[in-house]
């Protein structure tokens, strides 16, 4: 330990410390905080969209503004909320889970965070320019995103901002991989790692191999816009479909980057609250690796309607991905089966996750079938599907993780009562907001439209959906009130409020600067559980370590 | 357990009916193939959803902690045989869905050897231009002036789709079909409508400011009427 004390530079105190710190826990909290800020910002953009769509006619915003809204909502949620949230949670808990004092490259870690934030601010700064923010969707398909059809600084700020945060993601991923492969405590073999860590291993590999494709796509797009090249301009011999290939070679792994870590969180919480070990540890690891491998072979399922890709091949690989996902579902059920489940807030959110993600996963199989995709592609059916996966899946699991881990990070428990209220409001709101969208898509409502004629018969579902969106906003407000009140006045958490299994529960809440004063012996994937049980068997006097 | 089979299968039936009834019956050969495929997917998906959701709910209800009971439950760590079974079940389902997909994919992408007409679709910001190949007839228009093209029923019509500026997408919601309009490329879709009527068409790929307004109408009429319309249009266009 003494040598490590030297390798990490001292940091200043007070507020300044947050800007200069290279401690993985501080950087983790910075990531989480900025991710939550962009969750709220992008959520507010969504509320404006939903208000505009509540009834036929253009009431609130004009068409150009609406295009900026859905572009920056999608961009903010994917790049500046989702990915940083994942990296933030990994930052805080990977070193703790493997019994390490910090990440492998603390300075690089801080650099990656500030680069992400710079990118996010840059992309959103488009709103301050004369022509507004980028307005070509979070996918930025060429040639629409080229200089001829999207002039204006907002578009260039978007390209550079997203590219910067992508590069930062790669740096963070490499750092996490180096940490996991190089800094595990004695006894922490790969097959004793938490399932959360396994998911971070696969996620980091996905980031490291998929984000470069995005960087290339954006660099070429930038060159087309600013240097007069024509990589994606048909007039100059380029091909718009090439852009789609590059984008989705990144984009599909990206959706697994936004879901695998949350699978990991759920797989940590369900066993603890069922008071059993995870059912089928190796099955989970195998399924995670399989999903990671498959996720690089399915990208063109987003491109069936281009008519330029091999439908049967990409359909087959996409459907196959349902298999490892199915394994996980049954292993979660197996974990609860025969347990004694305590339904505190983290477990409630896991329950919500299971039902909502099931729904999103199933509609995904429909979209993997080209004839059905020709039918519902680019309609609200897809918007429904993606929010069941990313909101019902990732966001529910994120809240499960926050209720579970904020006591560790802050030393104080969140309120159970407010937590349950938050859960109920969110569950009702999310289904009201997104379930009717399936029917809207089937009835032919395209995505990315600010308005629809009354004669199309979309008004009712849209009104329900908008009401649901405001319920979601209320639920999120309850969460922040809970956070605000509990962090000041919540009951003290102690080291291990939930009867946890993994090493973060073997240290204080919050953990000291180098994480552990002592580590329990690591003989299984549940070192803290093992030690607790040995102490109990040795009797109240005997078991002190 | 057995007393749960009935409520669960009733639920499954209900969800199935609901899920498959929400798709309108399409008035075309290709659309009906999509209808059938969606129906089968909906049935299988409903069964999977209800059974899995019931298992999740059952395990949660049955194994929730009793307030006074502090003893540790049995600590079993898995069962390889069970895991292999639930590896096999989704694999089989997925293979079945894939085979069904392949069959219907042939129907919806099949090209008629001798279509009644070939209509060149050219999408632009913001509007559509439809050219009846070899007939010298063109119909075009944009927002507030939706173009209306006429096609025969009971005959295959081929659409050759491209775009002039950015990407658009040729979308006929009631016929359950769409295909992208991409500058520099041509996509072909064949449609055989069998019910006369006016079907709304839209642009499905975001293409800028007036994307939502890029509508058009396909009017399907009996073949004789179609020929008459075509001749009339030819003369009109010729005189113009
Ligand atoms: C806070 C609640 C949310 C609401 C009410 C909401 C609502 C919407 C709506 C209405 C659209 C469609 C806009 C359109 O096509 O015109 C949309 C698009 C989208 N949403 Fe959300 N959303 C929410 C949360 C999220 C979350 C948590 C994520 C991801 C982590 C997300 C990711 C996306 C993406 C990627 C798009 C596509 C944007 C595009 O078309 O370029 N949303 N959302
Ligand atoms: Cu995908
Ligand atoms: Cu369009």
Structure explained in plain terms:
The complex is a heterodimer of chains A (545) and B (240). With 545 residues, chain A is mainly α. Helix content of chain A is 68%, strand content 0%. Chain A has a single domain, classed as Cytochrome C Oxidase, Chain A (Up-down Bundle), CATH 1.20.210. Chain A has helices at 2-7, 14-20, 24-53, 63-98, 106-125, 153-182, 195-226, 240-257, 260-274, 281-294, 311-320, 322-336, 345-367, 370-376, 380-410, 416-442, 459-489, 527-542. Chain A starts with a helix and ends with a helix. Chain B has a 5-stranded mixed beta sheet. Chain B starts with a helix and ends with a helix. Chain B is elongated, with a radius of gyration of 26 Å. Chain B contains 4 helices and 10 strands; from the N terminus they run αααββββββββββα. Chain B folds into 2 domains: 2-63 and 80-109; 117-239, Immunoglobulin-like, CATH 2.60.40.420. Chain B is α+β, with helices and mostly antiparallel strands and 240 residues long. The longest helix of chain B is centred in the N-terminal third of the chain and has 34 residues, at 29-62. Chains A and B meet through helix 4, helix 10, helix 11, helix 12 and helix 13 of A and helix 2, helix 3, strand 7 and strand 9 of B. Bound molecules: protoporphyrin IX containing FE and copper (II) ion (2 copies). Protoporphyrin IX containing FE (HEM) binds at residues 43, 46, 49-50, 70-71, 73-74, 77-78, 82, 137-138, 383, 386-387, 390-391, 394-395, 433, 447-448, 469, 472 of chain A.
The largest sheet of chain B is: 5 strands, mixed
**CATH homologous superfamily designation of chain A:** Cytochrome c oxidase-like, subunit I domain
Q: Give every kind of bound small molecule, once each.
A: protoporphyrin IX containing FE, copper (II) ion
The number of E-state strands of chain A comes to 0
CATH homologous superfamily of the largest domain in chain B, by name? Cupredoxins -  blue copper proteins
Question: Terminal Cα separation of chain A, in Å?
Answer: 20 Å
Number-wise, the strands of chain B total 10
Give the proportion of residues in helices of chain B: 40-55%
Query: Can you give the mean pLDDT of chain B?
Result: 91
Radius of gyration computed on alpha carbons of chain A: 23 Å
Share in β-strands of chain A: under 5%
The count of helical stretches of chain B stands at: 4
Oligomer: heterodimer
Q: How many helices of chain A?
A: 18
The chain-level mean pLDDT of chain A equals: 94
CATH C-level class of the largest domain in chain B: Mainly Beta
Q: What structural class do the secondary elements of chain A suggest?
A: mainly alpha
Biggest interface pair, residues each? Answer: A-B, 82 and 78 residues
CATH architecture of chain A: Up-down Bundle
Shape of chain B: elongated
CATH class of chain A: Mainly Alpha
């Amino acid at each position: 330990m003494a040598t490590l004390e030297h390798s990490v530079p001292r940091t200043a105190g007070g507020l300044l410390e947050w800007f200069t710190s290279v401690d993985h826990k501080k950087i983790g909290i910075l990531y989480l905080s900025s991710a939550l800020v962009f969750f709220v910002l992008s959520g507010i953009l969504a509320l404006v969209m939903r208000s505009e769509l509540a009834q036929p006619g253009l009431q609130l915003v004009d068409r150009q503004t609406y295009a900026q809204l859905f572009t920056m909502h999608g961009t903010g949620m994917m790049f500046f909320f989702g990915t940083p949230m994942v990296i933030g949670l990994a930052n805080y808990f990977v070193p703790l889970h493997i019994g390490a004092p910090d990440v492998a490259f603390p300075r690089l870690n801080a650099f990656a965070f500030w680069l992400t934030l710079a990118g996010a601010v840059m992309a959103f700064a488009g709103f301050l320019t004369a022509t507004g923010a980028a307005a070509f969707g979070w996918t930025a398909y060429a040639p629409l995103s080229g200089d001829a059809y999207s002039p204006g600084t907002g578009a260039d700020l978007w390209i550079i901002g997203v590219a910067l945060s992508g590069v930062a993601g790669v740096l963070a991923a490499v750092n996490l991989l180096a940490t996991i492969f190089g800094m595990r405590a004695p006894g922490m073999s790969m097959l004793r790692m938490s399932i959360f860590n396994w998911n971070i291993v696969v996620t980091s590999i996905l980031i490291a191999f998929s984000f470069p494709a995005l960087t290339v796509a954006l660099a070429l797009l930038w060159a087309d816009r600013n240097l007069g090249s024509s990589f994606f301009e048909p007039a100059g011999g380029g091909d718009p479909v090439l852009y789609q290939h590059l984008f989705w070679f990144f984009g599909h792994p990206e959706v697994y980057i936004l879901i695998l870590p949350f699978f990991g969180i759920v797989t940590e919480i369900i066993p603890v609250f069922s008071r059993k070990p995870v059912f089928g540890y190796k099955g989970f690891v195998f399924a995670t690796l399989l999903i990671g491998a498959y996720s690089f072979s399915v990208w063109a399922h987003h491109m069936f309607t281009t008519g330029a890709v091999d439908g049967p091949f990409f359909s087959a690989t996409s459907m196959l991905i349902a298999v490892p996902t199915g394994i996980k579902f049954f292993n979660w059920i197996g974990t609860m089966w025969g347990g004694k489940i305590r339904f505190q807030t983290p477990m409630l959110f896991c329950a919500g996750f299971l039902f909502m993600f099931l729904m999103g996963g199933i509609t995904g199989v429909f979209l993997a079938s080209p004839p059905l995709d020709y039918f519902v592609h680019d309609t609200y059916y897809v918007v429904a599907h993606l929010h069941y996966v990313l909101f019902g899946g990732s966001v529910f699991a994120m809240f499960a993780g926050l209720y579970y881990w904020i006591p560790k990070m802050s030393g104080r428990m969140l309120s159970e009562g407010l937590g349950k209220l938050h859960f109920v409001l969110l569950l009702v709101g999310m289904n009201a907001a997104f379930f009717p969208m399936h029917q809207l898509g089937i009835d032919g409502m395209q995505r990315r439209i600010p308005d629809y004629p009354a004669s199309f018969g979309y008004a009712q579902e849209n009104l329900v959906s908008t009401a649901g969106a405001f319920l979601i906003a209320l639920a999120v407000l309850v969460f922040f009130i809970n956070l605000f009140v509990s962090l000041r006045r919540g009951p003290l958490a102690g080291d291990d409020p939930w009867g946890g299994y993994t090493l973060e529960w073997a240290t204080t809440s919050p953990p000291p600067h180098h994480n552990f004063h002592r580590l329990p012996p690591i003989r299984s994937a549940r070192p803290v559980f093992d030690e607790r049980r040995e102490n109990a068997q040795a009797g109240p006097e005997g078991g002190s370590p | 357990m057995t007393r749960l089979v009935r409520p669960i299968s009733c639920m499954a039936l209900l969800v199935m009916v609901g899920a498959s009834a929400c798709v309108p019956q399409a008035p075309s050969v290709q659309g009906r193939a999509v209808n059938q495929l969606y129906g089968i997917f909906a049935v299988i998906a409903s069964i999977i959803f209800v059974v899995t959701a019931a298992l999740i709910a059952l395990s949660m209800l049955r194994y929730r902690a009793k307030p006074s009971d502090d003893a540790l439950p049995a600590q079993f760590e898995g069962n390889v045989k069970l895991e292999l079974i639930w590896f096999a079940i989704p694999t089989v389902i997925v293979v079945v869905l894939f085979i069904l997909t392949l069959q219907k994919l042939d129907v919806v992408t099949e090209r008629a050897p001798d279509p009644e007409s070939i209509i060149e679709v050219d999408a632009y910001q913001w509007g559509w231009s439809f050219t009846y190949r070899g007939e010298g007839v063109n119909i075009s228009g944009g927002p507030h002036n939706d173009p209306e093209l006429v096609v025969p029923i009971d005959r295959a019509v081929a659409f050759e789709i491209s775009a002039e500026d950015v990407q658009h997408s040729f979308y006929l919601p009631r016929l359950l079909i769409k295909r992208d309009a991409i500058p520099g490329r041509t996509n072909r879709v064949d449609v055989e409508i069998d019910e006369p009527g006016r079907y709304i068409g839209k642009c499905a790929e975001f293409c800028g400011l007036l994307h939502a307004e890029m509508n058009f109408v396909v009017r399907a009429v009996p073949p004789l009427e179609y020929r008459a319309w075509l001749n009339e249009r030819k003369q009109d266009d010729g005189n113009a």
